[in-house]
């Protein structure tokens, strides 16, 4: 907690053995990058208080509901404490400020200016708690001509260059089937909070700061050197299906059983092994295929040869043959395949997260794996206001009558 | 530096004003997740020493070269100091251990067991420096039946569920056009190093630990609640082009000028605004389109109406009309569009990174933005061994004759 040295943590936390024990986070953000950042911090031991309006976070009402509550909340609310505060009510705002006095990090995703309109401008928050790290998540950032544009991940994905280059040659540009902008921003937000806390730990005045995180920038900066390749070499990425512009073979092929296998040969020696394993060592002597550049130039002929071979074998046999032989191959998996895969079972990819209404719920586990202080999943997203008593009475010291009055007044 | 309190940093760093000033990182990883993590740390003020074999990092020789050096190295090597060590040479190994005594973080991406085979097992490293955080990056993790499979991001992407669901209905599964597995692991690696350092700061014994980061897990866990939706509701994501399974309209439409625009209407009021803005307020009264569920059921009819409207307008006009009216729309951009966009210019999306051979090189800037201790880009990837003298003579205290001898012996 603020101004402590974090040498003791008399704090409730979902995953007390995690590396972030002692860190206190308030998550007032909604779908989905901000809550994803807060989930990362909670997964690894932080005490995370999810502050929702009395109407509940939008993610509870998102599509794909289980017993009335969306799978989004089941996941994104995991390992968090659930409290309600009406920030538009003066007593709600006061309660929020008292909570903020206890916190190291605040995560919000309102449109620029809306936090200020609630009387919770960063300067106000820093008056109460100079150590607070404030992560502000928006589509385009706090500044610039698009700052106030309503945005979802779709818009960031469309403008990032990814969508233009995603799809088959001759086909339309294609949005990604997963929310990669929100996911990237979730990860980058978690890193940037920790970076600001590193800075604070070295500051004799123990000062926090404001982090301005945009979905677009988080996604765009995750990609490799596209800008540099364009700047220096004039390369504009075009749609090429599953082929790669600079190495071959790299594609997806359909096998005899209808399943698909992905191949890549980023290194020459892997291509050599691959040709030998499919019974075509002669290709290694063929000038069309004996170097990466040559293979990329003759990719159409090469893919015809490989596709013909694949069509005569089942996918599982292809993957075994190639991976055992030191080439790179992978099946194209869907969710049930992932759940059944021995590697992922061995790594505990899937957690069983308890819920209060529908029993354990399966979801991805906490990764990566730490040798000495593991992350984990102790519960899925909790019922609305489930932890009001814990935080407002036991932690902040209100008496139960005050709590009841706040509730009656619509402040929580 | 280890065992210091980080209250002073008499350390060279590319971005000394960044939040991670005082952090010392050794990057001995190759393409591309591990170096991406190290780049994040360097961008925000850490002192990052890139240790390459005397033959040079593989990313230098990757495709898309500028003056003989790949754009990958130009980007991934930025803000790092470049030194060479032959880890197979006993004197090289000794030099590495001396460097490790000064470090907070080591990043490596060898196949499981290879670091141990070099005599650099984590236990050995921790004997020299108990505070060291060791980030180990692999395709599948350090354990399990696939631990030793050669892997690139392509394989992780194929098995993550993303590729299966990516593409047009009736078309093949499609690999992503960007290296999203490496990017996700780069971000997650940076977060997890900082989490381990938070833990270390609270440990009276100042102990580091080992982090086992897999490309697959980093990518898979970035996505939303796919596992939960399957577990609870039996939903298996299928290819549906740019449509979303649970909201409509959400798609990409071609405009009169041939350019594409992405639309999403995750909230009802946004759909209402959208229909009014395209001159069809009547659709808001139409039972087929008046709720999210209804729109999703009648998406084919809806997309015909929208596509017809889009084909009569130019993309820029569509985006202006819709975003000014409070709906969500975005152009599908490619790299030159991104470089010319006023929002991205306003946010300084692109940095000009100095190089020693070809002048400034454009690349993505350091994000997110910190209010008090900004990240930045001071140089692009440096020449091989450019900083051997700085680190081995000035920082470790070898005399120049020793350096010359190490070079002559093939140890650096």
Q: How is this structure best summarized?
A:
Two copies of one chain form a homodimer. With 412 residues, chain A is α/β, with parallel strands linked by helices.
How does this model look, in words?
The structure is a homodimer of 412-residue chains. Chain A is 37% helix and 14% strand. The first copy, chain A, has a six-stranded parallel sheet with strand order 5-2-1-6-7-8. In chain A, strand 1 (24-27), helix 1 (33-43) and strand 2 form a beta-alpha-beta unit. In chain A, helix 1 (33-43) packs across helix 8 (180-202). Chain A is α/β, with parallel strands linked by helices. Residues 1-8 of chain A have low confidence and may be disordered. Chain A contains 18 helices and 14 strands. Chain A has two domains: 24-222 and 351-408, Crotonobetainyl-coa:carnitine coa-transferase, domain 1 (Rossmann fold, 3-Layer(aba) Sandwich); 250-254 and 260-331, formyl-coa transferase, domain 3, CATH 3.30.1540. The interface between A and B is large, with 158 and 159 residues. Strand 14 (369-370) of chain A pairs antiparallel with strand 8 of chain B.
CATH class of the largest domain in chain A: Alpha Beta
What is the name of the CATH topology of the largest domain in chain A? Rossmann fold
Oligomeric state of shown chains: homodimer
Question: C-alpha Rg of chain A, in Å?
Answer: 25 Å
Total of domains of chain A? 2
> End-to-end distance of chain A, in Å?
23 Å
Helical content class of chain A: 25-40%
Low-confidence stretches of chain A: 1-8
The largest pleated sheet of chain A is described as: 6 strands, parallel
The number of helices of chain A is 18
Strand order of the largest sheet of chain A: 5-2-1-6-7-8
Shape of chain A: elongated
Mean pLDDT of chain A: 95
Question: What is the correct CATH architecture of the largest domain in chain A?
Answer: 3-Layer(aba) Sandwich
Largest interface, and how many residues on either side? A-B, 158 and 159 residues
In CATH, what is the homologous superfamily of the largest domain in chain A?
Crotonobetainyl-coa:carnitine coa-transferase, domain 1
């Amino acid at each position: 907690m603020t101004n402590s040295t974090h040498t003791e943590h008399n704090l409730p936390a979902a995953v007390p053995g995690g590396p972030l024990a002692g860190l206190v986070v308030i998550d007032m953000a909604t779908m989905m990058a901000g809550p994803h950042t807060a989930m990362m911090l909670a997964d690894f031991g932080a005490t995370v208080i999810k502050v929702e309006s009395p109407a509940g976070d939008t993610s509870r009402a998102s599509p794909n509901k289980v017993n009335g509550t969306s799978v989004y909340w089941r996941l994104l609310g995991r390992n968090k404490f659930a409290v309600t505060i009406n920030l538009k009510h003066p007593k709600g705002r006061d309660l929020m400020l008292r909570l903020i006095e206890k916190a190291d990090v605040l995560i919000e995703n309102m449109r620029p200016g809306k936090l200020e309109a609630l009387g919770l401008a960063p300067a106000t928050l820093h008056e109460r708690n100079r150590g607070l790290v404030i992560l502000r998540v928006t589509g385009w950032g706090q500044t610039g001509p698009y700052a106030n544009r309503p945005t979802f991940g779709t818009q960031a994905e469309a403008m990032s260059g990814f969508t233009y280059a995603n799809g088959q040659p001759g086909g339309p540009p294609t949005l990604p089937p997963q929310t990669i902008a929100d996911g990237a921003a979730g990860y980058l937000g978690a890193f940037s909070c920790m970076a600001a806390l590193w800075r604070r730990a070295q500051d004799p005045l123990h000062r926090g700061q404001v982090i301005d995180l945009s979905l677009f920038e988080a996604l765009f900066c995750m990609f490799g050197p596209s800008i540099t390749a364009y700047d220096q070499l004039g390369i504009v990425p075009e749609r090429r299906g599953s082929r790669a512009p600079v190495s071959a073979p790299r594609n997806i092929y359909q096998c005899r059983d209808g399943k698909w296998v992905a191949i890549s040969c980023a290194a020459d020696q892997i291509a050599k092994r691959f040709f030998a394993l499919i019974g075509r060592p002669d290709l290694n002597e063929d000038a069309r295929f004996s170097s990466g550049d040559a293979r990329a130039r003759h990719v159409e002929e090469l893919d015809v040869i490989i596709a013909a071979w694949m069509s005569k074998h089942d996918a599982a046999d292809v993957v075994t043959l190639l991976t055992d032989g030191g080439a790179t191959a992978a099946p194209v998996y869907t969710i049930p395949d992932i759940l059944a895969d021995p590697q992922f079972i061995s790594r505990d990819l899937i957690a069983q997260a308890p819920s209060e209404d529908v029993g354990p719920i399966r979801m991805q586990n906490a990764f990566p794996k730490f040798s000495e202080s593991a992350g984990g999943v102790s519960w899925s997203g909790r019922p609305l206001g489930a932890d009001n008593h814990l935080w407002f009475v036991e932690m902040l010291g209100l008496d139960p009558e005050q709590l009841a009055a706040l509730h009656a007044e619509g402040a929580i």
